[in-house]
Amino acid sequence: MGASTAADAVWLRVVILVAIGVLSISSRLFSVIRFESVIHEFDPWFNYRSTMQLVEKGFYEFLNWFDDFSWYPLGRVVGGTVYPGIMITAGAAHWIMNKLNFPVDIRNVCVFLAPFFSAFTAVACYLLTTEIKDASAGLLAAAFIGIAPGYISRSVAGSYDNEGIAIFLLMITFYFWLKALKLGSSFYGGLTALFYFYMVSAWGGYVFIINLIPLHAFALLLMGRFTPRLYVAYSTFYVIGTLSSMQIPFVGFQPTRTSEHMAALGIFGLLQIIAFIEMIRSHLSANQFQSLFQGLILSIFLVGFAALVALTFGGYIAPWTGRFYSLWDTGYAKKYIPIIASVSEHQPTAWPAFFFDLQLLMPLFPAGIYFCFQELRDEHVFIIIYAVTGSYFAGVMVRLMLTLTPCVCIASAFAISKVLDVYLAPPKEVLNDEPEEETAATKPGDKAPERPKTILYGIKDFDSRLAVIVPISVVLVLFAWHCTWVTSSAYSSPSIVLASQNRDGSQHIIDDFREAYYWLRQNSEPDDKILSWWDYGYQITGMANRTVLVDNNTWNNTHIATVGKAMSCSEDVSYEIMKRHDVKFVLVIFGAVLGYSGDDINKFLWMVRIGEGVYPNDVSERSFFTDRGEYRVDDQATPTMKNSVMYKTSYYRFAELYGPNGNPYDRVRNQPIPKKAINLHTMDEAFTSENFIVRIYQVKDLDNLGRSLNAAASFGKSKRKKRASVKVAATRKARDDDDE
Amino acid sequence: MRVVGILFLSLLSLVNAYSSDYKVNKLNKLVAESPAEPITLDTKTFNLATETPRNYSMFVVLTAEGEQFQCSPCKAFAEEIRLVTKSFHKKGPKGQAFFGVLDFANGKEVFHKYKLTSVPFVYHFPPTEGPNKRNIKDEFEIYDLNRLGVKAEDFAFWIEKHSGHKIHISRPIDFKLYGTYAIMAVSSIGTLVALRSQIIAFLSEKKLWQMMSLSFIVIFCSGYMWNQIRGPPFMGSENGKPAMFAGGFQNQYVAESQIVGIIYGLVSVWFVLLYTQVPKIQNTAAQRSAAFILATLFIMTYSLLLRVFTFKNGGYPFTLFL
């Protein structure tokens, strides 16, 4: 190959990589084109709000930020309880662009951050796969990760969340680790540590790195592959990485005090001992010391392990924290931390989810790992370990599909590229070495035909090439279609804006959430407190700019349980809770009109469960189930259910929507709703959005005469005249609704 | 009028109900007979122990240990409740909580009264008077074993939450079990030392690790953990016919995930064979037919997978051949 073709190949690679980058950005823009440039879902709203704080107030103010809009009356020290990586990244991008006189709004920086980082991820995957095989496999892997739905699900435009940049950091850290290991270079080791530091600042998933790399090092040790290169790479990475990770306020001294980080420390110690002994052996070169040294290694290892156990029991090292522990003991979370178990992305993964997210790559994944075993250099060992651990975690939790996806892309790109190499290249002469010997050994009699010195290895015929390449192309094209289809149909919904189709096929935007939040922003006092389930906390603070009791940062279980209790008890009980917390408005999400299944009645059992965990005397999950153990909302619903604040606020005046002769029907639960009117005596309906998705109630003031509001309401009922006029107004309202 | 009513009621209760102290005495006597066992109740004693007023917590296990019911959780829980009772009576406060067992054979009337169709359950009747008095909505509260666990520790955790009695479960040391463990440990260490070199040779076999890793990956990527956590049936049935595949995207049967795992494995095998075996074939015609056969197998197996997925996800638009 001449110099010019080599240069051409480099240019070709660059062009292809750029094209892949453009592709991976543009395939993530469905939501912006279909809806608008808007922040999605729940957590991104908090990240967006903190980024605004960072951009407006500056870095130090941000680190010291005490957010009094969340967790009323506790508040939250944001600077010390947040992974600031993504905010700083977006803030820096915003700053640079403004310095270059591109006046971009910070919101647009946040919206487009994840797509841009997906292009970087593609490059990182290219580099990593190039280390595993060669550039052609690298390009395949980059193309795969660029469009794999498993990764797109967390990085579409608008999903401004930690994972958006974390996968890039994960892959680039692994790349530098392999590079450092190959070259034994402390420079690359330092780069590994640097990107590890960036990763620590960005996502709690950094624990995966700090356990995977030691595991890789340990596996290499067991395979007898200790080299000075391993020693240099690991020591540089561990020391710099750990010290720098401790600079993140949220992490602090955890690397020295929690079990999650102890494996890395242990391997660091083990490497020092082995390096020491290797050194002595090279000086002494005496065989009789070997057994002594083996005993020494073993005893030091055992002493270290015993010390670790002792320190854990002594309380100096925290045992595995709940979130990580629940990955091993999968029943743990459900029993002791229902809050973690209640999140839908923490559920285990059924096989259709794997296939939905990875399609073609899934069945080719084992093939790729097989090829890794065939070559089994240090980097292949890494991919194998990554694949095994990654598949376990992805199986336990849906959200961890994300960490498995790059590995699957790399492994299957490896496999496909290997097969394509054989079927595209001309056959070549190779020495006839081992494979024939097996048959010779089994049948000693047939040794007569003499074996040629060389054989022609490869595909000799054009149509047999075609027979393999055509199917592979077909499945690859199908994969690309699948990815586009999944991205477009499943992963591009901002979830704060919903879409439906009109009868003529045109798109109809359902914008209830923003409508309601904006109503709150305009119609409530700046210091009003809003009670809602924690899912909507970030959105309310972000969009309505009001104080909430609980939000998506679920750090205080008791407080969440208090809200759960307020939702699941009768009005009188929860009125007391609401008054104690200065609650002015209650916000519930209700999907029965539209058939929106992510509403509060469907989440209600978790509120009950979490409430019961802290207030077992007031809340009992069983009393929400009928005698036959069913969860019902129709006329067979249990009295506890019917009296709960959640049920009442959800179905309040729901029947009126269907007119006097209609049959009210819950389109989510598929159950008819009783027509009997629901009376609320502690709150007034303040706002209901266009499609009934968001309902806001204003909590009444204390009664002037000091009666309970229940008593006051029943006293008011006896005034028949007033009651009648209210009824007329109500039916008129209902009729208006029907006309629409 | 109201005063008279209260008087009348209290008179009634005097006539019908025994006082708490009387019942505590009676129950204490029963406990003293066999402190390590829960009280065996029948309909009469059950009614006596659970009627109001009470100044103690009454836990009653409703069970059916008779052979004809084949209730294995009942038997499993019987051991555990014995352990809880023993631990409680050893250290816990006297006369504040009692544990009873009511078997279906002894208390059919009670089972009918509560319309119980499945066992085991634990009913807790909290104190209605005295210092530990606690008001609950119903007459009793229920410990659901299926949801909260059959282990004594789980039950003790629940008791602490619902009655305030902290019970430290001390499982008796099972010398037999530990003895077996010790013998097993010694013998296995002995074998390990004796077969040291063979074991190391076995463990450093690449094929072993390859098989283990590959099957681990295939098993876990086909929803094994979901099966472990959710515990679905091996197969379902639809209109009387056995069904391999569960309807719905979020659901699966054990058989189904195994089939999918096998398909993953097969696709990989055909693909690997395309690389490892075909290029070595010297005869052009043989090579051509091998390539054609393997490519066909590859694409057909993959089509099968797509077909299965289309079944799971009705709106899925892509299929190949099948």
From TrEMBL, chain A:
It is a multi-pass membrane protein. Belongs to the STT3 family. Its cofactor is Mg(2+); Mn(2+). Pfam families: STT3, STT3-PglB_core. It catalyses: a di-trans,poly-cis-dolichyl diphosphooligosaccharide + L-asparaginyl-[protein] = N(4)-(oligosaccharide-(1->4)-N-acetyl-beta-D-glucosaminyl-(1->4)-N-acetyl-beta-D-glucosaminyl)-L-asparaginyl-[protein] + a di-trans,poly-cis-dolichyl diphosphate + H(+). Its EC number is 2.4.99.18. GO terms for biological process: post-translational protein modification; protein N-linked glycosylation via asparagine. This is dolichyl-diphosphooligosaccharide--protein glycotransferase. Residues 527-585 form the STT3/PglB/AglB core domain. Keywords: Glycosyltransferase, Magnesium, Manganese, Membrane, Metal-binding, Transferase, Transmembrane, Transmembrane helix. Pathway: Protein modification; protein glycosylation.
Automatic annotation (TrEMBL), chain B:
It comes from the Eukaryota. InterPro entries: OligosaccharylTrfase_OST3/OST6, Thioredoxin-like_sf. Its main location: endoplasmic reticulum. It holds the Pfam family OST3_OST6. The keyword Iron does not apply. GO terms for cellular component: oligosaccharyltransferase complex. Keywords: Endoplasmic reticulum, Membrane, Signal, Transmembrane, Transmembrane helix. The keyword Cell membrane does not apply. One of its GO terms (biological process) is protein N-linked glycosylation via asparagine. Residues 1-17 form the signal peptide. The chain crosses the membrane at residues 178-196, 208-226, 259-278, 290-309. It is found in: Endoplasmic reticulum membrane. It is a multi-pass membrane protein. Subunit of the oligosaccharyl transferase (OST) complex that catalyzes the initial transfer of a defined glycan (Glc(3)Man(9)GlcNAc(2) in eukaryotes) from the lipid carrier dolichol-pyrophosphate to an asparagine residue within an Asn-X-Ser/Thr consensus motif in nascent polypeptide chains, the first step in protein N-glycosylation. N-glycosylation occurs cotranslationally and the complex associates with the Sec61 complex at the channel-forming translocon complex that mediates protein translocation across the endoplasmic reticulum (ER). All subunits are required for a maximal enzyme activity. Belongs to the OST3/OST6 family. This is Uncharacterized protein. It comes from Rhizoclosmatium globosum.
